[in-house]
Amino acid sequence: MENSRRRAPEHSFRVPLPRRLEGMNITVFGMGYVGCVTAALFARERNHVVGVDKDPNKIEMLRRGETPVLETGLPELVRRVHLAGRLKATDDAGKSLVTSEVIIVCVGTPSAPDGGVDTTALARVSQDIGKGIREHKGYPVVVIRSTVFPDVIENVVIPRLERDSERKLGEGFGPVINPEFLREGTAIADFEAPQYTLIGTDEAQSSQVMQKLYAFLDAPFIQTDRRSASIVKYASNCYHGLKVAFANEVATVSRAAGADAQEVMRIFCEDEKLNCSKAYLRPGMPFGGSCLPKDLRAAVQYGRRADLMLPVLNAALTSNRLQTQACSNLILSHGRGRVGVFGMSFKAGT
Fold first, then answer.
1. Is 36 a catalytic residue?
2. 347 lies in some domain
3. Is 287 within a domain?
4. Catalytic residue among 36, 238, 276, 291
5. What pTM was estimated for this model as a whole?
6. Which DSSP letter does residue 115 get?
7. Total number of domains constituting the chain
């Protein structure tokens, strides 16, 4: 039978996901939006799931078959898996960790006072997991769905897991980065119909477990390294924020010019070849040519004349200048050697 799964993006590690014949034992830390949705959906797929949280009110609600977070479709789902006996809740994961094949971390990573990531909850949970898997008879896979940079995984999570479990990374447990791309209000729908399932690990055993876990989804399965998987999540959210800011600055210019901002962006988004596509989204040399720099400068100057604040458009020019300087510095750092220039035209075919 022809595989109906959507095609994986280019350069991904793509394998056919095996059919899962029996459920797994899973512990999920953090019963917020991501944790509750993750726990309930995996429980629906005939896994045995234990949700862990330090908030006694959340635990009591889950024990009654109620959801502690407001999310479309979640109350009915939690009630159903609770009645089926596949979703339990506790504030002490000790017993469940010993038998869990998969341990999923969904605790919050709020902003620290300096704007960085507050890793307090993640550090505490890493210690709890380490202690809990010390007597584990198998090879538990520890899955990080919390949003953190790679250095947090390497300097906060893994050292605590190794120290408190008395096990070595890749020998006594398998660490996996599994970013979530869920939106509040549509989290269940987003979970069930993702563009892809992304994991970061270099271990075959952990990869196989994750393929088995996500076998029920009709989506490409992409495996990369842990650091890249972490950055993909940040890149996605930063880009989404950038898109909102860009659209609002276009609206600012449109209003000043007497144009309909909604109509401008509606037509803009009709172009799926250049505007809303993979075009221009590959790292490389700064932009140049006869159009992009000229038109960006013109838009910024128009904003100055009309007394408009356009920080995103200004920043694009500033960033491009910095990238140009960085390229020059990189070349000059090699000293006064011979320099080869391949291609003198604007681009191929011009």
1. no
2. no
3. yes
4. 291
5. 0.85
6. S
7. 2
